[in-house]
Write a structure and sequence with these properties.
It is a single chain. This protein is an alpha+beta fold. The protein contains 16 helices and 16 strands.
Length: about 450
């Protein structure tokens, strides 16, 4: 078994937009170095000042160096049949693989990460960065932040890891099925092992325990592992993976509940790596208010978080269509409902379709009675039901509660609970915020599985 211990210096943090400025490869047989290769590389792009200061490699040093294409064949021949070893291996591997692909070489090797192995075999050290780790283990590290110096130290670290691997951890890690091959450098495999394959919501956390991403899953463990597969080389993905230090989770009875919990948690926690759900907003809603003359007025406006909403819409057209229907069916005044904006009486006054409320001729009580009837009819259009489904175990069921077109909340009840006892059902519900996104999911599910739906009837008194 031969190992290729690799270190590179680059012009930036992700392979898609940055080049390699130096590479060192030490072929190791498990006991000693048997072959080595090291070269500067011309990246054909400017090396940022802060990287020049860190590595000591400036633009002048690489000006006459070979470009990567000139050395790609040599690099591929050294790596393709070896175990690729590096400190934070996925970073180095992503760069080398990307640039080899651009030259027509497909690299697909097993990998070992000396950061991850060191955390397991040399527990309790203050830091596992290469410099501090070498200090703790008395490994000589010369020419720090240069490919040759860092690779040489990593080769010594590898030999020490092999020597201390009494339990065969390296062999287990190299198994194709091992999650160690793909996990981020700061995430312990035990964090994956604790995940069940049930519906739920998972939380990626950074070093300080702050939630940086929330996701939902039908099978928690399977879904989480998909985040770490593939070879994306974008800066966003590389930074995201490096930031993951731990995983938390909540199990749910159904995938639908996981969807809802995810939406609520993203709004609550506002994780920096969740973007799509943050952009969702309810657009428009129908409101009512009493004007200075005592008439009840209906109108559509942009959604207000603290407003009393009669109905909500995804767009203005949908809202105006419903409002015009209500106005026509209950002989309401288009001007009082903001459909017409003239300063005089609405156009329907002349045709007797309006009784003159817009100019104060109709009695307030008579007009408001019809307005309240319209609001009651509107409420009757809004569904109220409980959605009963499987729970997190055989001894319970899940319940989602929808009241007058709004998602009220969800919870779990005993398998032996009387599902027709609506008061008992509602008492088991934990309230959650509602929005159109959540309601659309619930209504779609309810329409697809009507046998799981229990209608709720409310008495409305005018």
């Amino acid at each position: 078994m031969l190992y290729a211990v690799v270190d590179i210096e680059t012009t930036g943090g992700y392979a898609a937009a940055h080049g390699i400025t130096e590479i060192a490869i030490y072929i190791h047989d498990g006991q000693e170095i048997v072959e080595s290769y090291e070269t500067l590389i011309n990246p054909h792009q400017h090396i940022p000042i802060h990287i020049q200061a860190l590595t000591g490699i400036d633009n002048g040093m690489v000006e006459n160096a070979p470009d990567f294409r000139a050395v790609a064949d040599k690099i591929y021949r050294l790596l393709h049949d070896k175990i690729f070893v590096a400190h934070n291996v996925n970073f180095d591997y992503s760069f080398v693989r990307h640039h080899l692909e651009a030259c027509g070489y497909h690299l697909n090797t097993k990998k070992l990460c000396t950061v991850r192995l060191s955390r397991k075999l040399f527990t309790g050290l203050p830091s596992y960065s290469l410099g501090k780790l070498c200090t703790s283990l008395s490994i000589p590290l010369n020419n720090r932040h240069r490919a040759g110096g860092d690779a040489a130290a990593t080769a010594l670290l590898l030999a020490m890891l092999i020597e201390n691997d009494a339990k065969g951890l390296i062999k287990d890690t190299l198994k194709r099925a091992s999650a160690e091959q793909t996990l981020p450098p700061n995430l312990q495999k035990s964090e994956i092992d604790k995940l069940p394959n049930t519906p739920g919501v998972y939380y990626f956390k950074d070093q300080k325990g702050k939630v940086i991403y929330v996701g939902k899953a039908k099978q928690l463990k399977k879904r989480v592992c998909t985040h770490f597969t593939g070879h994306s080389i974008s800066m966003q993905r590389q930074n995201f993976l490096r930031a993951i230090h731990s995983i938390d989770f909540q199990t749910c009875g159904t995938e639908l509940m996981a969807f809802i919990l995810e939406a609520a948690e993203i709004k609550k926690l506002w994780p920096e790596n969740n973007r799509a759900m943050k952009r969702f907003e309810q657009k428009y809603s129908l409101y009512s208010f009493e004007d200075q003359n005592g008439y009840i007025r209906l109108g559509i406006d942009k959604y207000r978080k603290n407003g009393t909403v009669l109905y909500s819409f995804n767009n203005l057209l949908e809202g105006h269509q419903l409002l015009r229907t209500i106005v026509a069916e209950h002989s309401l005044c288009e001007k009082l409902c903001f459909i017409q904006t003239s300063k005089t009486a609405c156009t329907h006054y002349a045709t007797s379709e309006c009784n003159g409320a817009c100019i104060g001729e109709e009695n307030v009580d008579d007009y408001n009675y019809r307005a309240l009837q319209a609001m009651e009819a509107l409420q009757n259009l809004l569904p109220s039901f409980a959605l009963i489904d499987q729970g997190r175990s055989e001894d319970e069921k899940s319940c989602l509660w929808v009241e007058k077109g709004k998602f009220y909340g969800m919870g779990y009840i005993s398998e032996y609970c009387d599902i027709n006892d609506l008061e008992t059902l509602k008492s088991a519900i934990t309230p959650y915020p509602s929005n159109d996104y959540i309601m659309n999911m619930i209504l779609t599910h309810s329409n697809q599985y009507p046998q799981k739906t229990i209608p709720i009837v409310f008495e409305t008194v005018i």
